[in-house]
Amino acid sequence: MADVCCVFIWKPDLACSSWWVPSPSWDMAEAQVWALPEEELTDLFTNLEKDGDRRVSFEESQFGLFSHMITFFQGMSTPLKEPRLSVLHERLSRSTEEQMSPAELPAALDNTLVVPRTGLQHAAITSYGYKLQCLRIQVRQIALERDKARLDLEKAETWCLQLGRELEEQYIALKHTQSKLKDVQAEIEAKELLLQQAVNHQVKLEADTRFLQGKEASLQGKLNHAMKESTQLQNRVTEMAEKLAASEKLVLELQKELNHVVKDKLCQVEPHSPDLPNQNERFAEIVLEYERQCQVLWDQNGMLWRELERLRLQLRESRAERGLPAGEMSLSMEQLQEQLRDLKVQLETKTNYYEQEIELMRRNFERERKISEEGFKAEMRKMEDQKRELEETVAKYWAVIDSLEEQKCVWSLELEERFEMEQARVGQQHTKDIYYLGQQLDQEGEELRTQCRDRESLRSGTVLFLSWRTRRGKKGPGRQSGTAA
After folding, report:
1. What total number of domains does the chain contain?
2. Which candidate, 137, 239, 323, 349, has a CA 20 to 30 Å from the CA of 403?
3. How confident is the model over 420-446, as a mean pLDDT?
4. Are the C-beta atoms of residues 109 and 89 closer than 8 Å to each other?
5. Is 419 domain-assigned?
6. 57 near 100, Cβ under 8 Å?
7. Considering only 51-65, 163-177, 258-272, which range has the smallest mean pLDDT?
8. Alpha carbons 387 and 158: distance in angstroms, whole number
9. Residue 10 pairs with which residues in a beta bridge?
């Protein structure tokens, strides 16, 4: 209000560059304008919109504005005259069919007030236009802030969409990793199955080894028993052969000795000796004794031969029981022992080979299992870290989104409040400017009427003066002639 008063004081179009001092009636009108309640102004500009399209027409603005101005101006000492109000109403009614927003209302009112005016009116309209320009700048700044908030919100939404895409990619990678982990687990299960089969095979081989070892021990026992029996039989055969040879040798020696004795006795005996019969009898007895001993020896040799044949038959039967073919009866015990050693070596070789294979498989499986477990643990740690980072990022993004939503709501409320406040202030200022303009127009009209009356009175006085002088001039020559007469 102080700015408006400062602008209204100076009159640049007057010939005399003087300052104008407000009158008491001006101060009273200003006080009445400032005493206008803010609620009435707010109700005025909120009730301008009647059809709900957030746009007001000139008829609505005129009706609301001037109905309020009539009640406002009724308490003033210098009310707005009806002719001026009707003229302003007529000018504002030229575009009643056009619809406009509350932001366009000041410009429309400014355009309708473009009439020939004095310097004071021009200064008031200039000040009012400057204030409107400031308000437009403020509205433009508010719009820029709103656009910036909208851009920030769009950036946040784009960021959220990008985050959603990243989350989808991470989810796909997690699914792929889980499928890989399932494949690794299936491979581990297959390897565990192979290991179980290898362990079962090892157990079977160990059972076969124990069975073969038991069979080997049994065969070794049988072989030892057979070798012992064979050795005993061979010893008995050898012993019997030796006895037989000794018996035959003894028989031959006895035969030779008998022959020598007989020859010696025959040589010593005289043919005609009286003891010859006795000697012959004695020799016959000796011969019989020797023959009896020879018979006994021959019987013993026969028994020994029969025993030898029986032992050979037992040896043949024992070899046949051991599964030896008839053509291999002559194999020696060294060959049997060599075959047994070969079998032992083959069994040990196969056992060692299978044990080495099983141990190698176990080591490979343990190494692969450790590698798989380490890879699985590393992958799980990586996925847990990524999941934790994603959760933190999502939480941050949601916090940013919430803060942006709150800021958006706050900014929207602030913008609405500021817009309503500016709208109310502009309406109030516009009402004040219209009031001041109407009052100024009334004052200028009064001044013009006063000047007209003064001019009329001056003109009438001048006319009277001229007529008086004319009448006086006409009377003057008559008087002069009378005087002269």
Report:
1. 1
2. 137
3. 75
4. no
5. yes
6. yes
7. 51-65
8. 22
9. 19
